Amino acid sequence: xxxxxxxxxxxxxxxxxxxxxxxxxxxxxxxxxxxxxxxxxxxxxxxxxxxxxxxxxxxxxxxxxxxxxxxxxxxxxxxxxxxxxxxxxxxxxxxxxxxxxxxxxxxxx
Length: 109
What we know:
This protein is an all-alpha fold.
């Protein structure tokens, strides 16, 4: 049996909820150092595990888990899989929270 299959089964047993698994995997992907691990190393495994989940579960996890690690994981995932904009939209509120827009010049604060 392949190691990824064993890992997949263990992760599913430990975290039955697909949304919770998606949040864990996105956070893991977002914490990997770039470029070595995130792009080629463990990142490949994490993206394979995410591919097993329904896109709606991944998008919900991205929208509900408002951390920088999850947002970074989503960006990594989008870089490798493309997408229809759903994931980018899902992390919009997180990015606005983490990086609020600066006040416009010449306006009262």
